[in-house]
Specification:
The protein is 56% helix and 4% strand. It has a three-stranded antiparallel β-sheet with strand order 1-2-3.
């Protein structure tokens, strides 16, 4: 069902929107769910015949399957992108998803680490191992710059400007931004680059990638997740620690220190300031939690 439209949508996501393969597959999965719904309902229709009430019935169906509001919201985003493509390609005359309401989300506050917890994780790195200096540089870069894991593993030597105190990052949608980098991170990147990386047998195509694995190629997302999980366990940290935890910690510590929210937005590469505003809520929640935990008036 809609095979030609989905094939064109896939190409559009790759070429026009410059999305990663992971994101492309997620969007296509959303459309697959929609076509599955029509197949189950035995109401398969040409794409130009789809109306708002059809999409509302679909949302009701995935809700009945126990899908969370956040998952439903993501699927709605995929459907809207699909019909936006269809409009641009003149496959439909009207977009039935325009008035499709997204399920109300309960905004969860991201977990983050204290400065002391970050120090404990960094100190858990075994610098006697060949990858130790690399791992120290990775953690210092993540915390100094608040990078997404995809931005970290694609960071290039040619994108480092240590004399200026900046790095160039390729974010979502291949958007470039300049991010300040601290002196400590610059120091440990320099140690790794000049004392460890120079001895690596670098594979063709990876010459400009900063952080390499033992085979001389770039690191995977999974390797960074495993690295942080293992270090957190070694440090005795009970929280679930991921690359996003370091990103949240970077932003939280900036906001708690009084940083301008617009500056934090720019450094994180958020398209909308409302995404960054969650850190002001987190700051207030942290204060309230501290009061409830330690103030006598809350102990009764």
């Amino acid at each position: 069902m809609w095979a030609a439209e989905k094939k064109g949508f896939k190409a559009w996501l790759r070429l026009e929107k410059s999305l990663s393969e992971h994101s492309v597959e997620a969007y296509l999965g959303d459309i697959d769910k929609l076509t599955q719904f029509f197949a189950i309902q035995k109401t398969a229709s040409p794409i130009e015949d789809i109306r708002l009430n059809d999409l509302q019935a679909f949302l009701k169906w995935i809700g009945s399957l126990g899908m969370t509001a956040s998952s439903q919201s993501r699927i709605v985003s995929g459907i809207r992108s699909f019909f936006k493509y269809c409009i641009q390609e003149n496959l439909v005359k009207q977009d039935p998803s325009v008035l499709l309401e997204t399920p109300k989300l309960r905004r969860s506050l991201p977990d983050f680490l204290s400065i002391e917890e970050i120090n404990r994780i960094v100190q858990a790195i075994d610098l006697s191992k060949p990858e130790g200096e690399r791992n120290r540089a990775i953690l210092e870069t993540m915390y100094s710059c608040g990078l997404r894991v995809s931005e970290l593993i694609t960071l290039r030597l040619s994108s480092l400007y240590p004399d200026l105190g900046f790095i160039k990052v390729i974010g979502k949608g291949d958007k470039e931004r300049l991010v300040p980098i601290g002196r400590i991170a610059i120091k440990f990147i320099g140690i790794y680059r000049d004392q460890v990386r120079v001895h690596a047998d670098i594979k063709k195509g990876s010459e400009d990638i900063l952080f390499l694995n033992r085979r001389g190629t770039g690191l995977s997302r999974q390797m960074i997740f495993i690295l942080l999980k293992d270090l957190a366990r070694e440090a005795g940290i009970k929280k679930t620690v991921s690359p996003h935890t370091f990103r949240h910690s970077f932003a939280t510590h900036l906001v708690e220190g009084g940083a301008d929210l617009r500056a934090v937005q720019e450094m994180l590469g958020h398209e909308s300031i409302t995404t960054t505003e969650i850190y002001t809520h987190l700051d207030r929640a942290y204060l309230r939690e501290t009061l409830q935990k330690f103030h006598p008036a809350f102990q009764a």
